[in-house]
Amino acid sequence: MKLDAAIDGIARAYPGPGGACAVLQRGEVLEKRTWGWANAERRIPFTPYTLFRLCSITKQFTCATLLTEFPDPSVLDAHVRDRLPALEESPPTTLHLCHNQSGLRDYWAVAMLHGSPVEAPFAAAEARRVIGGTRTLQFTPGTRYSYANQNFRLLSDILEERTGRSFGELLRRSIFERVGMHDALLAADTRAMPDATEGYEGTPQTGFRAARNRILWTGDAGLGASLEDMIAWERYIDTTRDDAESLYRRLSAPVTFADGTPAAYGFGLSRQTEYEHAFTGHGGALRGWRSHRLYVPTERLSVLVMFNHLSDAHGAAMDLLAAALGIDRPPRPALVEAPPWVGAYLEPETGLATRIDLANGQLRLRFGHSAERLDLDLGAGTAANAATRLEPTTDGVWMERLVDHQRSLLRRCDANPPADASRAAFAHNHRQLTDLPGRYRCAELNAETTVIDSGGILYGAFSGFLGEGRMEMLECVAPDVWLLPCPRALDHTPPGDWTLAFRRDPHGRVVGVTVGCWLARGLNYERID
User: Fold this and answer.
1) Is the CA virtual torsion 401, 406, 412, 414 positive or negative?
2) What are the tens digits of pLDDT across the range 58-67?
3) How does pLDDT run across 75-94, given as a tens digit for each residue?
4) Can you tell me the distance from the alpha carbon of 252 to that of 271, in angstroms, rounded to the nearest whole number?
5) Catalytic positions
6) String of DSSP letters for 385-430
7) Which of 31, 117, 225, 357 sits in a 20 to 30 Å window from 135, CA-based?
């Protein structure tokens, strides 16, 4: 059977210290497997009862707890307002938090703008200061989607305040006891798990080492659970599938944006379609941990994948889903020549640099949280995947992002540099190495960005109340548009490349820079020296 072969091959296809997976149908386990080590140094094996850090899979449990305690979440809207005391515009509602439509900038990304070292401690006090200092939003709540972890931290904090109970106790009472998740717990402190399970960084080529995390997570990513616990959750989902008032039916109910357009994310669940089958699910990740779960209601099929290393849990889940459906994953056609509209662009609404190029035989789009692969339709001249579509025109490239609820015309910004000119030479031609270095301050964050010329190379770094971030080499994208890479961060997946769009006055003098990434954009810094 395809599923047997897929299960047998998963450990080698996604190598690392240890892991677990399961496939269920109609509430019954079709296949279940654990392998390797929960703690390789202490030779503790990975078993079905090993506690695992589920990370962002927590979000659906936070929303389930919310709906159990407060069936009408709008009664908590005033509490959301109270936790954003500096906000200068209309606040998001409780449901906006649940659906990642709040407009808040992700607080893990903003922490990097405050100069946080990658492995620094980040607990309740730091979270309150970052969240409480919010003065502006990225967009009007309800009009766009953007992932923001603090949406769910705010929910769990508000639940604790209103009920007078700890979030861990609320999870036990609302979900774990009802479902039969006997070992599940709120594992808020990311430094260690109670059973000594470790998450690992590295690859088979470089070797693996225990990942170091010092974040205190709650409703955004604090769940700890075993494979058996998650099997109990999947069984509960299937058992209650016909009850319109059941927790998972409410969590997976259709969600819309303010204009009535269907949304692909709501109540801590992603709504997707793959292999012509609609499903709900979510991934989870922290440095050293990767997981994914999904449920296909038409087939009554569940897939669970848990790695205590950095392999692609989503990819593994898609492999198992295809195998369970009896489908061969089709190979993608490889491009040998890039279309003429590859290059660097600016997205006007967010101000973010957007790059389109050819990588591994597919078009690669670098705009959002991570790079996307798109298939080129040679007949139509467009490129697309399940979430994004690109259509070139004489004025630029139309980019439609279905999940974000956004359509915009990308404007080319690389100014067609000569083919024989390197990026460094291109930058020199525009005098950028001489007039960009300096200090820039963001009044909203009370934080700074510093740009330094070191031996003819520009470097940049952020600093604020959390410390001084490390210097990174800047990459020139276009005149006055540079990228500051962030390959490691507090959270599992770093913000990626920050766009630095420098601003000039009518005399051509650099007076400021607008900084942003997809998770946290549109922050203006003014030059202070």
Assistant:
1) negative
2) 999 999 999 9
3) 999 999 999 999 999 999 99
4) 8
5) 56, 59
6) -SSEEEEEETTEEEEEETTTTEEEEEEE-S----TT--HHHHHHHT
7) 117
